[in-house]
Design goal:
By secondary structure, this protein is mainly alpha-helical. It has a domain of 152 residues. The chain has 15 helices and no strands.
Length: 408
């Protein structure tokens, strides 16, 4: 980590104009912001197309033609968010440099990120939870990676933590309304407890139908498991395919090579994780309902715990951070309801603060900056925005080395 005091950072950067640090390809700030906005418009259109394709591929059966205008409008607002964040950071740093004649650590590492994070208000209100959870999870990953810089990454501890937290989450989502707000985001939602736990002994079991109709789903267990697993596998496969084509457009001309790349193990980890997670939860839940002859909320703890073993296939600190944040937010809501605490824009504030944390991590601790955030910046800005960080990081590291030489 590049640990820098305010005075050291100012001494290292003040001698350089913003055209050298912030926008080296264009000497004039206004033109540089315009070019960056144009690049962000193109990059955001591709990036959010990936996000929307993955989201709506999972629930395509519930979509109608009447939903298309609202989806397109929401997509345009998401693109505006992608344009605002990088341009606001660049504009804030340039404005402060031109007004005060210096680069301050607070502005470069914190204020610029806070201003960029305010772009969450440009996005559709229904989409803000997704954006907030994504950015918050990346910020959590940055903090965990910084901790891992001091200790070894424990595989067993991560997996067990995911299993325990997932069991708690599944139980909470089945037993409390506070955990099932439609604006929240978690890729899987267990069904609610059935109001009627009557057993239908006349159910047809020839096609895999369950004799115990207390299962939380309708129809046969086998069909429900196959339908649920295939839906998530399809959605994640489309997401992975779109990501591969965005990162390597040349594969469009070679379908065979594209398919080989798509079905490589590294690219299929996410799909395997989703399929294992959903399939394991549904199978164990149905098994426990058959054995117990009724649906109990406690079954969600065991099913969620076993489904959490899928984390070993795709060890992703972002997913683990998202799960921890989700469970913490549920308990936070319960405390808020119990003590009648005032409601605030928690989603938006968490997005703004988390975005500032990520910008700070990218500048001062770039080795532990999440790859997901790096991919996001590279895709949205078409790799133009990295020049800002690369120049600042290089100068700060040179200043750090010179200080160490002088100290010795």
């Amino acid at each position: 980590m590049v640990a820098m005091s305010r005075q050291v950072l100012r001494r290292a950067l003040d001698d350089y104009p913003c055209s050298y640090l912030v926008h080296p390809d264009e000497p004039i700030c206004s033109r540089a912001c315009f070019k960056l906005a144009l690049s962000c418009w193109k990059g955001s259109a591709k990036y959010f197309l990936l996000m929307y394709a993955a989201q709506y591929a999972i629930k395509y059966k519930t979509l109608t033609l009447e939903d298309v205008p609202s989806i397109l409008k929401s997509y345009c607002r998401s693109v505006l968010l992608g344009i605002w964040c990088p341009c606001a950071i660049t504009g804030t740093i340039c404005l402060w440099k031109n007004v005060t004649g210096r680069f301050d650590k607070e502005v470069v590492c914190y204020v610029a990120g806070l201003v960029g994070g305010c772009g969450v208000y440009l996005d559709n209100a229904k989409r803000r939870p997704i954006v907030s959870y994504t950015i918050s999870a990346l910020a959590m990953e940055a903090l965990i990676r910084r901790l891992y810089g001091k200790i070894n990454r424990p595989f067993k501890t991560e997996t067990i933590t995911f299993m325990i937290m997932n069991g708690i989450l599944m139980y909470k989502m089945r037993t409390t309304e506070l955990a099932s707000f439609s604006r929240d985001i978690w890729f899987f939602r267990p069904p609610k407890i059935r109001r009627s736990n009557k057993i239908d002994l006349n159910a047809d079991d020839r096609i895999g139908g369950t004799l115990n109709k207390a299962c939380p789903h309708s129809g046969s267990c086998r069909n429900d498991i196959i339908k649920g697993v295939s839906k998530y596998i399809l959605g994640t496969t489309i997401f992975t395919a779109t990501r591969i084509l965005i990162l390597n457009p040349k594969l469009r001309r070679n379908p065979i090579k594209f398919l080989k790349t798509l079905f490589e193990w590294d690219n299929m980890r996410l799909t395997t994780f989703f399929g294992w997670y959903v399939g394991a939860y549904k199978m164990l839940s149905c098994f426990l309902c058959r054995i117990g002859e009724r649906d109990r909320p406690e079954y969600a703890i065991a099913a969620g715990f076993i489904a959490g073993l899928s984390y070993g296939v795709n060890r992703n600190i972002t997913v683990l951070g998202s799960l921890i944040l989700y469970v913490a937010r549920i308990y936070g809501r319960e405390v808020q309801e119990k003590y009648q605490l005032p409601r605030i824009h928690f989603m938006e504030l968490s997005m703004i603060i988390s975005f500032a944390v990520l910008i700070n991590s990218r500048v001062l601790d770039h080795k532990n900056c999440p790859r997901g955030f790096e991919f996001m910046l590279k895709t949205v800005t078409q790799d133009r925005f990295t020049a800002l960080f690369d120049q600042i990081i290089r100068i700060l590291e040179e200043e750090k080395r010179s200080e160490q030489i002088n100290a010795t």
